[in-house]
Design a protein that fits this description.
Layout (H helix, E strand, L loop, with lengths): L10 H10 L11 H19 L7 H7 L3
Length: about 70
């Protein structure tokens, strides 16, 4: 779930989601509640997944990433 920012409407983003089999859901314009839900999900993802293990640098994090 994303807002309607230009980065999330780009063809590159659409292609990336399609290749991963992800369905894109957009928040309704001028609806802070649903946008807040999306923002909270991002914060939770960063705290519990992306930064759950400390790395000395971004290069070390990228090297350890499993795709």
């Amino acid at each position: 779930m994303t807002d309607n920012g230009s980065a999330y409407r780009s063809s590159l983003f659409t292609t990336a989601l399609a290749s991963a089999g992800i369905r894109h859901v957009r928040t309704r314009p001028y609806t802070p509640r649903t946008n807040g839900e999306a923002e909270r999900f991002i914060q939770t993802s960063l705290r519990e997944w992306a930064y759950a293990r400390p790395y000395p640098s971004s290069a070390a994090r990228n090297q350890a990433a499993v795709y």
